[in-house]
Amino acid sequence: MTLTTYNQIAVPSFMYGTAWKKEATAKLVQLAVESGFAAIDTANQLIHYQEALVGEALQSLAQKSVKRESLFLQTKFTSADGQDHRTPYDPSADLTTQVNQSFASSLQHLHTDYLDSYVLHAPFSRRGLGAADWEVWAAMETLYRASKTKMIGVSNITASQLALLCQEAQVKPMMVQNRCFAVRAWDKEVRDICREHGIIYQGFSLLTANRDVLVEPEVFAIAQREGVGPAQVIFRFAMQVGMLPLTGTTKQQHMLEDLAAERITLSADEVQRIETIAL
Ligand SMILES: NC(=O)c1ccc[n+]([C@@H]2O[C@H](COP(=O)([O-])OP(=O)(O)OC[C@H]3O[C@@H](n4cnc5c(N)ncnc54)[C@H](OP(=O)(O)O)[C@@H]3O)[C@@H](O)[C@H]2O)c1
Prior knowledge:
By secondary structure, the chain is an alpha/beta fold. 42% of the residues lie in helices and 14% in strands. It has an 8-stranded parallel β-barrel with strand order 3-4-5-6-7-8-9-10, surrounded by 5 helices. A two-stranded antiparallel sheet has the order 1-2. Helix 2 packs parallel to helix 3 (95-110) and helix 3 (95-110) crosses helix 4. The two termini are 30 Å apart. NADP nicotinamide-adenine-dinucleotide phosphate is lined by residues 17-19, 41, 121, 155-156, 177, 204-208, 229, 231, 246-251, 254, 257-258.
């Protein structure tokens, strides 16, 4: 299954996330692709991600005839605030140069000459969007217009910031990636804006941010009926409300289970119940 952005790019409906995998990153990315994931999320930020080891996995996969074009690669520009001393660009350079240097370094790490999706890891401003956000976004728009990335997106963004970005940007984001809490109706405000603009909403921490939901009797009952685990119910719920879920599992059994979530179906009532389960 695929989802389609407003600029008509098809995106796999489930994404494998590579945060916190450290030296196991290469092995796990290979395992994820061999298990059926076609979309990989990373970031050029050594505190949490090993982008170069994702690239190492891609090289090993290429030797096994897995073509670059068959994979959807997404990485991020992380501002100097989110980096340690290993900043992958000159932090004293202007922001446009920082984005361009970070992007070039990502292409090198991933052994590719284009990205499928390039994401601003987080706006600089906590409220609204400031000059730094607009400068970085403009640099990303330029990369998009030059066809160096098929889409651009933003992560860790509030509903009001996203509304502003959609209103003022020359190129609207095609992707939003946010942590998704059931207590906020699974980020419904942001998801609604995404739906209105044809933006794909990627949800992360669906399991880890919602441990209470996983043990709710209603979720458990659906899981029992379908012969699956509660994690699969949550991933399927996410898909049925139009989300693109991320999983960061480290186990092949869970990779296969997560992908199999597409094979179950929740009723409209069940979807609505889970959407409001923590309100
Ligand atoms: N933009 C951002 O700022 C940001 C922030 C955080 C994350 N992310 C992205 O999102 C990705 C995913 O992060 P996440 O927080 O959603 O996931 P995560 O915390 O990395 O992992 C998901 C958790 O769920 C478990 N799990 C997965 N499938 C399961 C199953 N079928 N049954 C039982 N347990 C299962 C995993 O355990 P096992 O390992 O035991 O399977 C793991 O503990 C990251 O790797 C990263 O790419 C982005």
